C-alpha cells in the first residue's frame, strides 16, 4: 500500500505533517462503526441462513461451516464482478471487508483492475494482493498455535 | 431460528465494528486489518476462546475472517491427533480447503468473465 504523504524537504516534515493533520477531514468514527455493524451483521445473517439450510439438509453444525464459506465466497466474487460488492465496502467499510465474502472481493477487485497486465502477472498475481498476506500470516500463526498446543499437549 | 439470526447479526456486526475502529483509530489499511483479524482468530482459537463463540453465534463467528484463522487452528488440532507432527503441515489447509479453493476458483472466473467498471 502506498502512503499518501507527499515528498517534502526533511526539515519541513514535522511542520508539514502537523499542517496536513489539521486540514485532514475528521474521520466519522461513530458513523463508520454503525455502518460496519449493519453491513457486517447483515452479511452474517445471510451466512447463518445458508448454514441453517445446510444443517436442515443433513450437515452437522461444524460441517455446515465449510459449504457456507464456499457459498459466501461465491456470492462475494459474483457481486464484485457485477460491480455491486465494492459499493457494499464503500458504505460498510470493514462490515463489507471482514466477512469472507469480502475476502473474495479483495481477490477479484485487483485482479479485474490489472487484467491489462496479462493473465499471469495481471489476473493471476493480483488475485493474491490481499489473499496472499492473509493466507501466509493465517497459516503461519495457525502453525505456531499448533506447535504450542502439541507441546502443551492439550 | 430467529434468535440464531439475531445472534449472528450482533456478533458478526460487533466483530466488523472492532475491525472498523482499528482502521479509523489506528489509521491502517483494510488489508492490514484483514491479516490482523485472521491472526487474532488463530490465537483466540488456540486459547480456546473462539470455539465457544462459534458454538453460540454460528455464522456470526465463522463468516468474519477470524473464523478463517480459527478453522485452520482447529484443522491442525484434529490432524495432529491422527497424524502426529505431520498434521501441523496438513491440518490448516485441509480444514480451510473448501473456502480457499472456492475463493481462488470463483475469483479467477469472476476476474476473467466480468469487465471492470466504476
Overview of the molecule:
The complex is a heterodimer of chains A (154) and B (118). Chain A is an all-alpha fold. Chain A has a domain at 28-129. In chain A, 77% of the residues lie in helices and 0% in strands. In chain A, helix 2 crosses helix 3 (61-81). The model of chain A has no long low-confidence stretch (mean pLDDT 91). Chain B has one domain (2-113). Chain B is 84% helix and 0% strand. Chain B has helices at 2-26, 30-46, 50-57, 59-62, 66-83, 87-113. In chain B, helix 1 (2-26) packs across helix 2 (30-46). The chains are: A mainly alpha (154), B mainly alpha (118). At the A-B interface, helix 2, helix 3, helix 4, helix 5 and helix 6 of A face helix 1, helix 2, helix 4, helix 5 and helix 6 of B.
| SS class of chain A | mainly alpha
Low-pLDDT segments, ≥5 res of chain A: none
Q: Quaternary arrangement of the chains shown? A: heterodimer
> Greatest contact pair?
A-B, 81 and 81 residues
Counting H and I runs of at least 4 residues, what is the number of helices of chain B? 6
Computed Rg of chain A = 20 Å
Number of strands of chain A: 0
Order of helices and strands of chain B: HHHHHH
Mean pLDDT of chain B: 95
Strand content of chain B: under 5%
Shape of chain A: extended
User: With helices defined by DSSP (H or I, 4 residues minimum), what is the helix count of chain A?
Assistant: 8
Strand content of chain A: under 5%
Shape of chain B: globular
Structural class of chain B: mainly alpha
Mean pLDDT of chain A: 91
User: What is the count of β-strands of chain B?
Assistant: 0
Q: How are the SSEs placed, and which strands pair?
A:
The complex is a heterodimer of chains A (about 150) and B (about 120).
Chain A: H1 13-23, H2 29-56, H3 61-81, H4 85-92, H5 94-97, H6 100-113, H7 119-126, H8 128-152
Chain B: H1 2-26, H2 30-46, H3 50-57, H4 59-62, H5 66-83, H6 87-113
